[in-house]
Write a structure and sequence with these properties.
Mean pLDDT is 82; it is low at 363-400 and 481-489. The chain has helices at residues 5-8, 21-33, 50-62, 76-83, 100-111, 132-143, 163-166, 179-192, 199-208, 213-226, 233-240, 245-257, 260-272, 277-297, 311-321, 323-340, 346-359, 400-416, 418-425, 444-450, 453-467, 491-501, and strands at 39-43, 89-93, 120-125, 149-155, 170-173, 428-433, 436-441, 472-477. The protein starts with a helix and ends in an 11-residue tail after the last helix. It has 512 residues and is α/β, with parallel strands linked by helices. It folds into 4 domains: 5-173, P-loop containing nucleotide triphosphate hydrolases (Rossmann fold); 179-240, Helicase, Ruva Protein, domain 3 (Orthogonal Bundle), CATH 1.10.8.60; 245-374, Zinc Finger, Delta Prime, domain 3 (Up-down Bundle); 394-501, DnaA, N-terminal domain (GMP Synthetase, Chain A, domain 3, 2-Layer Sandwich). 51% of the residues lie in helices and 9% in strands. The strands form 2 sheets. A 5-stranded parallel sheet has the order 2-3-4-1-5, with helices on one face. The protein has a 3-stranded mixed sheet with strand order 6-7-8.
């Protein structure tokens, strides 16, 4: 039966790990010195080898020739663990087995001595998904584990684990894998499948994987199935639904020439080709990030994942734009990225962004120094510039994007905190400046409730997710809502919010 490439190429010994030498060395030394901890916490982005290392560790500690720096992969213990047949090596996916009963069952299993191998190994994947009750049930076992038991907790979000759990584990952090390392592995995999792959194609795949080797192998598998013969850049772009870097190179040239029509025609070609404009925006952010890196680091930019073939053309454009202009473009794109994912008209948002870049002089090569200054507030999309008069500072300065994005804010907030969602429905909102959302209430009680940390924190978390920047929240009591920017509200929703805030009960629906 055919196996996916990421399963065929799953590392079976520490030496096969890519980009995690620090983890391999730590565990190998611990095995050699017989100083293994009773519990490990593997943290890091997806596809960087956390579960694979946990299985290699399980084999190394139980190998008939060990414990050894490397498992032999020949003995019954190694082969059994590799095939998933050894009952003493337990794997739990906490994303689907997150309750207290699942952890109680695990505790019962690890109480007894191992039957088939030397050590029992419990691997808990996506450990951050466990419920609070499950963590409490696991805590005592981690604190005072039975002999001959090793726990490995793997997670992509270690900040969600209780400190009591983290403090009882030895933490190892897995790094994002560099583009050069991913590219080298992809070349090897392609050769083993009797295929060749061009340098442009391999670097495009490596870049798209965002530091995860598993994602890179999955993408390569799709490309190999799509194409025949040598894999070219066009094959990768077709599978990804992406555009080549040359599109952004041409867009930047249009900005430098101040050729608005050329920029709009380029965007039209992308849209007509059916490309996903959210993915297109992500690619644009990466391109201008690379321009910034090249300008800052020069020939050393290759160390920061800049492909060697693109170093010279990127350098030329970066020098023509200047650091301030590149920063301004990145700020615009950062705001666009926060909006384009949810809008029904992404092309229009892109066109407006291009207009703003031209109006602000973003493409001029000879900008005055003061025009290159980029403020932190510009990272929030479409911030209105406050008037210079002292009286104007008393008013809220609304974002044009606020009205568009507010339904999304409320949708996410309702999932995060029903109470905070209900409180916002009874107030008026707007931006006092580029970094503060002001909420105005006529009722003092509503103002005080919204000003509490339990309501501010979920709102700030949602605002960061939607607008892409940290925003302060300021609550103000006003008379008749003067100066506030009113966001239209549904009367039915407002009635429901009053019931939620005051924990009320509807007595008579007809008399409302």
């Amino acid at each position: 039966m055919y196996q996916a490439l990421y399963r065929q190429w799953r590392p079976q010994v520490f030496a096969e790990l890519v980009g995690q030498e620090h983890v391999a060395r730590t565990l190998q030394n611990a095995l050699e010195q017989e100083r293994l901890a009773h519990a490990y916490l593997f943290c890091g982005p997806r596809g960087t080898g956390k579960t694979s290392v946990a299985r290699i560790l399980a084999k190394a500690i139980n190998c008939e020739a060990g414990p050894a720096r490397e498992p032999c992969n020949l003995c019954a213990a190694c082969l059994g663990i590799q095939a998933g047949r050894v009952m003493d090596v337990l794997e739990i996916d906490a994303a689907s087995n997150r309750g207290i009963d699942d952890i109680r069952e695990l505790r019962e299993k690890v109480r007894y001595a191992p039957v088939e191998v030397r050590y029992k190994v419990a691997i808990i994947d996506e450990a951050h998904m466990l419920s609070q009750e499950a963590f409490n049930a696991l805590l005592k076992t981690l604190e005072d584990p039975p002999s001959r038991v090793l726990f490995v907790l793997a997670t992509t979000e270690p900040h969600k684990l209780p400190a009591t759990i983290v403090s009882r584990c030895q933490r190892l952090d897995f790094h994002l894998i560099g583009i050069a390392e991913i590219a080298e592995r992809l070349r090897s995999v392609a050769r083993s499948n009797g295929r060749t792959i061009s340098e442009d194609a391999v670097y495009l795949l490596a870049e798209e994987a965002n530091g995860g080797l598993r994602d890179a192998l999955s993408l390569l598998e799709q490309v190999l199935a799509y194409s025949s013969g040598e894999v070219e850049q066009e094959d990768v772009l077709a599978v990804l639904g992406a555009v080549g870097r040359d599109v952004f190179h041409l867009l930047t040239e249009a900005l430098l020439r101040r050729d608005l029509s050329a920029a709009l025609f380029l965007l039209d070609d992308v849209a007509v080709a059916g490309k996903d404009l959210y993915h297109f925006t992500q690619q644009a952010v990466r391109y201008y990030r690379d321009l910034m890196v090249v300008l800052a680091c020069g020939k050393e930019a290759e160390r920061l994942n800049i492909g060697p073939d693109w170093l010279q053309p990127l350098t030329k454009q970066a020098e023509a734009l200047g650091m301030g202009t590149i920063g301004g473009i990145l700020a615009e794109l950062h705001g666009l990225l926060a909006e384009v994912r949810w809008t029904t008209r992404p092309r229009l948002l892109w066109e407006l962004t291009i207009f703003r870049l031209f109006l602000s002089g973003g493409g001029a090569a000879q900008l005055a120094p003061e025009a290159n200054v980029v403020t932190i507030q510009s990272a929030a999309a479409e911030i209105s510039r406050p008037e210079q008069s002292a009286a104007a500072t008393e008013k809220i300065q609304p974002l044009p994007s606020l009205t568009r994005m507010w339904p999304r804010v409320m949708e996410l907030l309702k999932k995060e905190s029903v109470k905070t969602h209900a409180l916002l429905l009874s107030g008026d909102v707007g931006f006092r400046d580029g970094s503060t959302l002001e909420v105005r209430y006529e009722a003092q009680i509503h103002c005080e409730m919204m000003d509490s940390p339990e309501n501010k924190k979920p709102l700030q978390a949602v605002l960061k997710e939607v607008f892409g920047v940290e925003l302060a929240v300021c609550c103000v009591k006003v008379t008749n809502g003067s100066g506030a920017v009113t966001v239209e509200k549904d009367p039915e929703e407002m009635f429901s919010s009053a019931v939620e805030i005051f924990h009320g009960q509807v007595i008579d629906e007809l008399n409302r």
